Amino acid sequence: MQQGRLGRLWRKTVGGKIAYTVFTKPWKMALPELGVFVKKLGLDGIELPVRPGYQVEPERVEKDLPRAAAILADCGVRIGSIAGPTDERTIAACAEARVPIIRICVTVNGNYFQVETNVQRDFDRMVPLLEKHRVAIGVQNHCGMDVCNAMEVHHLIEKYSPRHVCAVWDPAHCSLHGEEPEMAADILWSHLRLVNLKNVFRRRVNGPEAETAEWKLYWTTARHGFASWSRVAAILKERGYEGDICLTAEYTEAHAVDRLIAEDIAFVKSLFVQQAVSK
Does 11 score more than 50 pLDDT? Predict the structure, then answer.
């Protein structure tokens, strides 16, 4: 019964079109409540954090992830991806729950090229397991001491099939490094399976009288950051992208997340509306 329900939902919402999901990190509500909340937002699914303190914790992933998928499926919501560990237990649980992607970021905690070599050795060991369960690891570009831009992600994963190790494109993080979305799409396209959308700008936190300027990141709504969601949407439509657009619900004004995510969902959907072409 559970597999049939998940299978019907998966076929209905995957393949041949854009689907919209949200990273549910801001919401630790019970799963039935979460499913109703996400459905009311007008979304197809979620990215679920598999982390301590959330609805599915790593220690119980084998039982709780399939259970979570079934509960959410009753609300018409699927788990499009998780943010969590990439051990064998989690990969197998993803397969049972029909979750296709485990999203990760790669931290550079040493010499860059040695870290890259070490990560690729881990991927090499995992490929047979990923193939067996038909689950992929999705590497997202991030910021700080992480793999940050499209070319770094590409160099890390290019030797793998996107069935096993794929790209998660985050244009907001690209924008912090001056990487234009058209260029990032070219670089990542062969392995792209998930797009994260949020927005950001740098805000100075000290005055002009200071000896050295200090800046912090300010996570904002779709229209007000460095990244152009309009350009990203145009690129994806032109290239025929089929897959999830995951809104990451990251805002510096975290207390307003419910209002801000609703605004961003409406905006991103407006960007993908197909306009009638006059003949």
Answer: no
What amino acid is encoded at 195 in this protein?
Answer: V
Q: How many Cβ atoms are within 10 Å of 16's Cβ, its own excluded?
A: 6
The residue type found at 247 is L
CB 92 within 8 A of CB 76: no
Report which of 243, 197, 204 is spatially closest to residue 223, judged by C-alpha positions: 197
pLDDT for 275 equals: 38
Q: 201: which strand partners?
A: 218
Residue 70 amino acid letter? A
Examine the pLDDT at 10 and tell me if it is beyond 90: no
What is the CATH architecture assignment of 2-271?
Alpha-Beta Barrel (3.20)
| Mean pLDDT of the region 171-181 | 95
The full set of domain ranges for the chain reads: 2-271
Is the four-CA dihedral 142, 83, 73, 41 of positive or negative sign? negative
| First and final C-alpha spacing in the chain | 49
Task: Name the band, by pLDDT with cuts 50, 70 and 90, for residue 49.
Answer: very high
Which one-letter DSSP state was computed for residue 190? Answer: G
Tokens of 143: 């910021």
